Amino acid sequence: MNYILCDPQRIELYYPFTLTRPLGEMRIFGGTLKEHWEKYLGCEVSYLTRKYLRGLYPLKIEKENILLDPLDIIQILYLDKDLKKQYNKVLFEYDDNTSIDSIQSKIHSMNISSFPENRKKGLSLFIDYNINNSIASFFKSNIDCSKSPFLNDDDGPIVIEKDVTIMEGAIIKGPVYICKGTTIKMGAQIYGPTVIGPYCKIGGEVSNSTFLGFSNKAHHGFIGHSIVGEWCNIGAGTSNSNLKNDYSNVKIWDYETHRFIDSQQQFLGLFMGDHSKCAINTSFNTGTTVGVNCNIFGSGFPRNYIPSFSWGGPQGIKNYEFEKAIEVAEKVMFRRSMKLSSKYLQILREIYNLTSEFK
């Protein structure tokens, strides 16, 4: 049987991160959703995603196919083992006369998710303490924390992949998962549950957050209850608020309705899309959403919602010219010995066109 992870119809709930990737590429404790599915199923899976992403995330299709909701792996593996027996999979047959778009349209008319309440949570699902802590409880530390006063796995494991550098004086309190190639700078303070993707540089204070990969927060400053995409750079001294002064629920930008809504979360920090950067001493207010490829600078608090391909800060926002943004992205990726491919360039161009109406 061929297994396919199907992006939900309401994919906007997971913007700005799913502007540049299928939902299955989002990261939780232990790997991406896709990696967890493949380990669970014992085989490779592919994606049924939006047209402009298919060049980089191709669909493998056979005569008989099982469609899976990417998020259901969380419940299947970690929250209720009985769901392994109860899980409802969507089967469809394919032939040369079948249109991929018609399949996606048909699937979206159904409810492929066994757990529709996840759709209400959106991105807050990925930083929700209880879920992340439940996932982490199925792991064990792969280092001996008892020999160091700076490593504490009493509340959850500390898992460190290969080629990770932890410099002197770094303090880590689990559950924390650190992916390959990452550097934890001297004196860093990391509180779990936190997931740090591959090839990041992390310094200062980080709590209850996810870094998807290839991003730098190398200096002092606080990032909490946040998600930071790939290829981001956070300037020295930058911090975000994750709790309002009156302790009320945080409002967050909703890409579906194009307005701010109640996140139903008391703690919520920063959502920063891929390739976005901020200057030194940037201050992000509670529940700030930054789109893809933004350049933020200036004193004071930027707006709580910054559209993709924006340039500026508290004093005003203007369009970030596509060619200039791509020039910077190419330089950043080159520093990691990676090239911005033509397929990836096409994705960024599509996002630029898709999001121009929100500026």
Q: Can you offer a commentary on this structure?
A:
The structure is a single chain. By secondary structure, this protein is an alpha/beta fold. It has 8 helices and 32 strands. Strands 8-11-14-17-20-25-28-30 form an 8-stranded parallel β-sheet, with no helix packed on it. It has a 5-stranded parallel β-sheet with strand order 7-10-13-16-19, with no helix packed on it. A hairpin with a 4-residue loop joins β23 and β24 (259-262). It is globular.
CA radius of gyration:
20 Å
Write out the strand line-up for the largest beta sheet, numbering strands in chain order: 8-11-14-17-20-25-28-30
Please tally the β strands and state the result: 32
Content-based structural category = alpha/beta
* Relative helix content: 10-25%
Sheet-strand content, in percent, reads 25-35%
Low-confidence stretches: 114-119
- Major β-sheet annotation: 8 strands, parallel
> Would you tell me the overall average pLDDT?
88
Number of helices: 8
Oligomer: single chain
Span between termini: 44 Å
Q: What global shape is seen?
A: globular
Compact description:
This protein is of the alpha/beta class. Helix content is 20%, strand content 26%. The longest helix is centred in the C-terminal third of the chain and has 14 residues, at 322-335.
Q: Which keywords apply here?
A:
359 residues, alpha/beta, 5-stranded parallel β-sheet, 8 helices
Question: How are the secondary structure elements laid out?
Answer:
Elements: E1 2-6, E2 27-28, E3 31-32, H1 33-41, E4 46-48, E5 64-68, H2 72-79, H3 83-86, E6 90-93, H4 100-108, H5 117-121, H6 129-136, E7 151-152, E8 158-160, E9 165-166, E10 171-173, E11 176-178, E12 183-184, E13 189-191, E14 194-196, E15 201-202, E16 205-207, E17 210-213, E18 216-217, E19 222-224, E20 227-230, E21 233-234, E22 239-240, E23 251-254, E24 259-262, E25 270-272, E26 277-278, E27 283-284, E28 288-290, E29 295-296, E30 305-306, E31 310-313, E32 316-319, H7 322-335, H8 342-355
Parallel strand pairs: 1-4, 1-5, 7-10, 8-11, 9-12, 10-13, 11-14, 12-15, 13-16, 14-17, 15-18, 16-19, 17-20, 20-25, 21-26, 22-27, 25-28, 26-29, 28-30, 29-31
Antiparallel strand pairs: 2-3, 5-6, 23-24, 31-32
